[in-house]
Design a protein that fits this description.
The chain has 368 residues and is of the alpha/beta class. It is built from 13 helices and eight strands. The chain binds zinc ion. The site of zinc ion has 6 residues, from helix 10.
Length: 368
């Protein structure tokens, strides 16, 4: 049994570190292709350009479409080659970062993740998740190396809408339950081996940190202040979740969350929100989860405003036969649903989604 643990080479987190980006990029390269969208380049272009210049790094801007699709990768690669960039920076959300990884890998450049939101665990991981031009999940690539640098400015993160931080909690909360599920069958994680003790413990720490500090962090983020709770939750959403999911394993929650993108109505929701409903389903599918633990997790999700019902991921009026069809998709051969140690049939998954929706409604009603 081969165990594999992978991680970024450097992780930097704190207030104001974005204004010092040049200091961290300069050791990686002298010509930096920055992958960002128009809103992000407008908001952060000036301090980033200033700091890079101070440290002798040339900024080459690449404004992407907002989607991480293969056409955008091709354009990014062409620009990187034409400009002879030696480092690629993904600055913004998970899609800018994943695109930057794919471009850097294609040309052999160094890579830096600079998230402006803490909505998912893309920044630390070696994976690029692809979507079609119209936003359907299309699978992923696992690169042989992780980002050279992950730079997280916590003041930038709390200045963004709180929905992103909460979405990251949804993604991060899945990490432990999926890691535990995958490890029971000693499944191979995305990193290419079975989970190490390190990966399992980081995944557990991720879940525990969110349950303990998530509610406080959400309140503080709404006030745009960086507190110890906010710092811990950002680290959980970004670093712990990334290391945990990638080196310990994934299971039904992500199969459901990713798969929901086939429905137009579910597309406006974030990755973290979709996998959150996936987690409620997974907790109703896996009878190793004790009832009290299931309730604690769902109640936490209700407290921070994560989706716990079908309606909260846009598909409250889905017909039973449509839900069954989804369950069949999520259970197709090769799906990560089969990382569970027990057999998962479409009927099991259908039943768990119905049960999850009912549980979500009942806990929301109790919370008032
Ligand atoms: Zn995820």
């Amino acid at each position: 049994m081969i165990k594999v643990f992978i991680a970024p080479r450097r992780y930097v987190q704190g207030v104001g570190v974005l204004s010092d980006i040049g200091k961290y990029i300069a050791p990686l390269g002298k010509r930096a292709l920055v992958v960002w969208g128009p809103v992000v380049s407008e908001a952060f272009g000036e301090p980033v350009a200033k700091s890079l210049k101070e440290h002798g790094v040339e900024l080459i801007s690449f404004r992407f479409s907002g989607e991480c699709d293969r056409g955008q990768v091709k354009l990014g690669v062409e620009k990187t080659k034409a400009e002879q960039a030696d480092v690629v920076i993904g600055l913004g959300g998970g899609k800018a970062i994943d695109l930057a990884k794919a471009v850097a890998m294609a040309v052999g450049a160094r890579m830096a993740s600079v998230p402006t939101i803490a909505s998912n665990d893309a920044p630390t991981s070696a994976a690029t998740v692809y979507y079609s031009e119209d936003g359907n999940f299309e699978g992923w690539d696992i690169w042989p190396v992780n980002p050279d640098l992950v730079l997280v400015d916590t003041q930038v993160i709390v200045n963004a809408p709180v929905r992103w931080l909460v979405s990251g909690m949804g993604d991060g909360l899945c990490t432990w339950y999926e890691a535990e599920a995958a490890f029971k069958g000693r499944r191979t994680a995305l990193a290419g081996g079975v989970a190490t003790m390190a990966a399992l413990n980081l995944a557990k720490l991720c879940g525990d940190t969110l349950l303990e500090y998530g509610v406080d962090a959400k309140r503080d983020c709404e006030l745009h202040v960086v507190t110890p709770a906010v710092e811990k939750v950002i680290e959980a959403n970004t670093l712990l979740s990334g290391l945990g999911f990638e080196s310990a394993g994934v299971a039904a929650a992500h199969a459901i969350g990713n798969g929901l993108t086939v429905l137009e109505a579910a597309k406006p929701y974030t990755h973290g929100e979709r996998v959150a409903f996936g987690l409620v389903t997974q907790l109703c599918l896996d009878d190793d989860i004790l009832p009290d633990e299931r309730l604690d997790v769902v109640d936490f999700m209700v407290d921070v405003g994560l989706p716990v019902t079908l309606a909260e991921v846009g598909i409250g009026d889905i017909k039973p036969e449509e839900l069954m069809h989804l369950a069949e998709l999520f259970c197709a051969p090769g799906q990560i649903t089969h990382n569970h140690v027990f057999t998962v049939t479409p009927f099991d998954l259908y039943s768990a989604m119905v049960a999850a929706d009912a549980l979500g409604h009942s806990r929301k009603a109790l919370a008032g």
